[in-house]
Amino acid sequence: MPTYKFTGIDIEAPKGARVVAPQDGAVVDIRPNPSGTYGNQVVIDHGNGVFSQSAHLDSVAVKPGALVNGGQDIGTVGRTGNTPSLGDSHLHFEIRLNGPASRAAGGTVVDPLPYLSEP
Amino acid sequence: MKTVLLAAVIATTSCHAAEDHDIQASAGGQGAVASIGDTPKDMSAFASSDCEKSVLADCTAQDSQGRQYVFFDGALSRISMNKLDAKPGAELPAGMLFGEDIEASKEKASSVFRIRFDRGEVDGRIVYSSDFSIRSPTGIKYALELLADDQNKLEEVVQRTDF
Fold this sequence. Notes:
The structure holds 2 protein chains of 2 kinds. By secondary structure, chain A is mainly β. Chain A has strands spanning 9-12, 18-20, 25-29, 40-45, 50-60, 67-68, 73-77, 90-97, 108-110. In chain A, strands 1, 2, 3, 4, 5, 6, 7, 8 and 9 form a 9-stranded antiparallel sheet that branches. In chain A, strand 4 and strand 5 form a beta hairpin. The model of chain A has no long low-confidence stretch (mean pLDDT 88). In chain B, strand 5 (58-62) and strand 6 (68-72) form a beta hairpin. The radius of gyration of chain B is 17 Å and the shape is globular. At the A-B interface, strand 1, strand 2 and strand 8 of A face strand 1, strand 2, strand 5, strand 6 and strand 7 of B.
């Protein structure tokens, strides 16, 4: 029986909570993706083909081309995009290798946890 | 203001909260041209689409009855229809009708799909939302959401996979 492929992890947090860059990198896109699934998002190129996507943001604090340091604010938690009508605000976070290519859903989705450092 | 540190993963929930009472069901009503999880090779069944050829990575489509379709990562992930966009004769799942009391809509959907709904309000309007327990003909589980207008009449129906 097929199962739907979930493409990242969800981190529940209050609307407006700070979202920070997971590692150093360059912001490559802040536009909602064509289907609107991610809502407001920040896509960061971390080098070596590693891209992070932080989605469903309420607000975005960076612009394309900006260089960010790990831990730097990039936006706030929200509910934009394809989120449940009665769902809680949360951060959808994913890592794509060799993406996002021309479309936001490009590249290869991998488990994001190994890319998150210990606090 | 609380800080969300990605390094400190507070709660990694995959959103999947489905109960194990799978119901296989036609997704978008009798007139829907595709079901949740579908990967149509021919987009000619849709009235319009911004999908590039058969690439369904991240795009949308509409059918002639006013349904909105979202394709993501290669498959249909969301179907929705609201009262304003629906064309005359457009059919909803479970025999629901736009403009009827949303309690009646909820009863119809509960009976046909054998699902339970959580009730809430968004901007003062009633919303009923199921868990991801309806199984599409392609085997993909999805949730059903019913949204009312300010008169508590059914205004929008959404079927969506988890994201």
